[in-house]
Amino acid sequence: MDVHEKTRYSDSELQEFKDLITEKLRSSREELSALAQSLSNPNMNGTDDTAGTYKTLEDGSATLEKESINQLAARQRKFIDSLENALVRIENKTYGICRETGKLIPKERLRAVPHATLSMEAKLKQS
Question: What pLDDT score was predicted for residue 42?
Fold first, then answer.
């Protein structure tokens, strides 16, 4: 059957994507947990140097690193939310359907970006 004739992915195809997303969710949550861990342990380098200038540089560097970790954690949370929403679409059997064109998003794109809600055609129109 031609891909353009299909209006949705079959249950077995949806299961394949569900497995892929579930695995990505597991590793993403582990990564988020590691980021949270490094935020709660700011002194993992153990530098207790009391020299004035060096300490100020260290503090500035630590603040910058903390902001960077916070940004990564926020991005990771957003990614996890997107993956969880994709699982909901799998349950509703609306997964893989472009929200702009209503056509199926090609499997290659979904394997690369499993939380995608737009086909490349629709995404390029947005640019």
Answer: 60
Each residue's pLDDT tens digit, 8-62: 999 999 999 999 999 999 999 999 999 999 888 765 554 554 455 555 666 677 7
Residue entry with tokens 């153990």: 46
Within 10 Å of residue 76's Cβ, how many Cβ atoms?
18
CATH architecture of 11-43+50-126: Up-down Bundle (1.20)
CA nearest to 95, candidates 11, 4, 5, 2: 11
Angle between helices 11-40 and 52-91 (to 10 degrees): 160
The residue assigned the tokens 């970790």 is 69
Flag whether the pTM goes above 0.85.
no
DSSP 23-52: HHHHHHHHHHHHHHHHHH-TTTT------H
Domain range annotation of the chain: 11-43+50-126
